[in-house]
Amino acid sequence: MQSHTKILFVCLGNICRSPSAHGVMEHIIKSNSLEDKITVDSAGTSAYHEGELPDPRMRAHAARRGYELTHRSRKVRASDFEEFDYIIGMDDSNISNLKAMAPDLESEAKIYRMTDFSIKPTLDHVPDPYYSGADGFELVLDLLEDSCEGLLNHLLRNAFRPDKS
Ligand code: 4NP
Known about the structure:
The protein has one domain (5-157): Rossmann fold (3-Layer(aba) Sandwich). The protein is built from 6 helices and 4 strands; from the N terminus they run βαβααβααβα. Strands 2-1-3-4 form a 4-stranded parallel β-sheet, sandwiched between helices. The protein is globular. It is α/β, with parallel strands linked by helices. The longest helix is centred in the C-terminal third of the chain and has 24 residues, at 134-157. The mean pLDDT is 95. The relative contact order is 0.21. The chain has helices at residues 17-31, 56-64, 80-83, 92-101, 105-108, 134-157; strands at 5-11, 38-44, 86-89, 111-113. 4-nitrophenyl phosphate is lined by residues 11-17, 48, 128, 130.
């Protein structure tokens, strides 16, 4: 049985979408007592906000749903492609930047799109909320709560199968 699955969520700045995915998924992992099976982290394709906490608007919207976002922004690094099993981008731009950074085909095969895991498909990406109003931040959380639940279902069906040792 695969002992541990490591997931990295990626967006542009690592201050809105990916730290929220990180917080939502951590909450789901804890609720299902899967801390010893799944680890999550998040990063940005840029270093624009290196070391910063998530955007205050994102933190406020997430807090209203019970998620405390305390991750500090960091840029994706080459070693992430070795360390993580799933590298999950939020939109086309994240995916193409990640593909350009992937050192080999094995690493490229780890790249997914967050909405690949949607249970109720509404949009094919998680839109950047940075220049939006409150609705944009709520939409991000709606999409992430649904797709993180779908990601857990995917992992339960696939990653933890006994034949994937
Ligand atoms: P994120 O949102 O990629 O979801 O963290 C953004 C954060 C910052 C910027 C753009 C998007 N920015 O241009 O600084």
